[in-house]
Structures are given as C-alpha cells and as structure tokens.
Amino acid sequence: MKQKVKEWIQEKPEKASCHHFWDIEVANGPSSIGTCRYCGEKKEFFNAFPTINPLKKSGNPLSLPRMPDVAINRDNNS
Question: Which residues contact 26 (CB under 8 A, 6 or more apart)?
Fold first, then answer.
C-alpha cells in the first residue's frame, strides 16, 4: 500500500505581523508564560485578575469613608 505524504514547510512570520496563537503553561503561581505557535514570541499572562479599585484609598478593607453627622429632630412625632 502506497501513501502520499505532503511536505508542508511553514515559515515563521515576522513578530509585528503575526496574529498570535498562544500556548499558555499550566497555572502554577500568579503568572504563566505563553509561547506563540507561529512566531515563537513569549509573553507573561496573569492567572487571576488583579483587584483594582480606583476609589479605594486605604489598604484596610474595613476602613469606611467618614459619614457626615446627622441632626435628629426630636420635635417631630412621625
């Protein structure tokens, strides 16, 4: 039985024009290294989203903003 074998030679594209297809390592820590299948470029990927809150000013999650004092009207019976 004869089999036809096609030889396929793939040239690496230039990194600037490559549409990357990332093979990313298994998660083991805060980040993993990915390698493009086509051009071989390496890139670091984070394994979790960083918690970014632009309104947060303190590192303590229990610290709340100061609320203004409220005057209580004791004359109202409602």
Answer: 32
